[in-house]
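User: Quick sanity check before I run a bigger batch. Here is a single chain. Can you write out its predicted 3D structure?
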Amino acid sequence: MTRLKQNLTGLGPVLHFSFTQLVRAKGNIITLAIFMLAALVSVPAASLLSGPASPPEPDYEYAEPARESGGLSVSYSVVSQSEHLGGGGEKSSGGYFVQLAHSILVMMVSIMSVSYITGAVAEEKTSKLIELLMVSVKPLALIVGKILSVMLYMLMTFALIALCFALSNTISSVFLHSSLSLFAGADGASLLAGVNAGTVLAALVSLLLGYLTFAIAAGLFGAACSAAEDVQGAAGGCTVLIMLAYFASVVAGAVGGPVSTVCSLVPVLSVFCAPAQYVLGELSLPLLCLSWVIQAACVALLALLCSRIYAALLIYRGSRVRLRQMLRMARGGKEAV
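Assistant: Done. Predicted structure follows.
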């Protein structure tokens, strides 16, 4: 515990400085303003541009001939369209929507964090600023501070956007007498019925584990860059991994069954698949916890790798370090490069 505390020396100042830089960056301010403005006008614009809601299609009747002892009689049965079509279409489409929505959220958070952390670490290294920082700040505190600052900034961003969307919905309902529900209809009601504090917690835990996984990887690849032109390639490698996991989760959600269950236990894929499958009832709570344990072990291994080679990467000058070279550094130190 004492050694860990020593390695985190300077974490507070790094966290404060990195978060302040994120908030004050002109590009981030403009982007956040655009997203908040879009959220504010989204519901009124949708209400004005959309026509009157079409009435739901009524249930229909069909006649089924039945023979009785006295002759031919006709009996009628009222059957809804979903029952007549088998009842599986809405459930399947609803499940796919839940998987897609969660996967998009994880993808957005991961790509945003990877882009910033990779660029920030590489910029400090190429500008020689890192050599001054390491005099009073431990290398592990640098990467942890950046990871936490990005996480706090994203939480603030999503909270502001959600607040603007709720305000937009309220304004539309008061002045336009119209509100928008992302889960309108019977199918949406059935999906919301399965959403509670437990399912929200499951999504947040998986999202946090996924964020930590990609953020630590981004820090390592950013520290492996020795020139500004290497940053794009380093961030691109992490982004490709995120996109592959995203597409795999979407396909697994469409296929369902054992495929989605297996993907919910595979590291990296589990953060995309496990919470959605749990909400849909396709994954039990013990399997969800098992997916967390596996992903947490993956995060721990990445953190161990980071702690062993991050300091050596920060002072390394030369061509961009590849993954195989990182593993050699973890085993034998900087001279293994």
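Confidence is low (pLDDT under 50) at residues 59-64, 79-92, 182-192.

User: Great, the batch can go ahead then.
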